[in-house]
Amino acid sequence: MKYFYLIFITLIVCSCHNDDDRFNDNVITLETQNESQESITSVLANGESLIVLRASISAEAEDNIQTIEFNKSAGDFLGIAGATASRPIDANGVATVTVRIPNRVDPLFFNAKVTAKSKTYIAESNIVTHRAYADNIIVEPSAVVITQASSVTLNTFLTRNEGVVSEGTSADFKAFRTILDQEVEVGRFTGLNNATTDQYGNMTVTFHTDTGDFDLSTPVFIKVSALDDLSNSITKTITIQVN
Questions:
Q1: How would you label 133-152 residue by residue, b for 16+ Cβ within 10 Å and e otherwise?
Q2: Which of 22, 115, 134, 152 has the most CB atoms around it within 10 Å of its CB?
């Protein structure tokens, strides 16, 4: 009896060993690529960048695996709604899906998943996003002529030539008048602590003229500054008349 028990245990161990060899951690792999099929680890968060998730099935995998399920932490599958996309594998055991990167500066996480013989195998990948800075600044004041002890709202847009500015991009605001070719700061701003862009590249601050340091004979200049992708400063200056 003991002899048959040992044979039974041996058969179970051998069976598990063979199963592990066939379904190992390399059943599926996942690579993040650009549109030129080059492997990448980072991408610009401008709301329009595209990456390709390329999943490959090992030759050791089951022949009846037909599709691969892709999942993402953020972004949009191109042409596919939802957080999950199922794609067919080709003759080489490869499936791909394209993801549009959002304009938020957060790491992105992806996985590719297959199921065979009631077992699920997952390959994971992640990518770092870099901030997309502005190419242009647009400032839209609620008024261009105001009285003393009043205020003007400054709707400010940071825009790009390609895509949109990353959410949370900051800008600096300065109000001044010119005296003997020197910039003398006047007034005050509120909302500067929250002077970062929303998902559309917009931010709003308010300029107040209640500080008593205005010369009504000279205009007030409001200058907005931000950085571009090369860390160069870009500016936009508007004029406000205080009466």
A1: bbbebebebeeeebeeeebb
A2: 134
Q: Which domains does the chain have, with CATH numbers?
A: 27-131 (2.60.40.10), 136-242 (2.60.40.10)
* 112 burial level (CB within 10 Å; 0-12, 13-18, 19+): buried
For residue 193 the two structure tokens come to 């602590």
CA 67 to chain centre: 28
In angstroms, the CA 199 to CA 192 distance is 18
Secondary structure letter of residue 168 according to DSSP: T
User: Which DSSP state fits 196?
Assistant: B
Each residue of 189-243: pLDDT tens digit?
999 998 999 999 999 999 999 998 888 888 999 999 999 999 999 999 999 999 8
Place of tokens 């077992």: 119
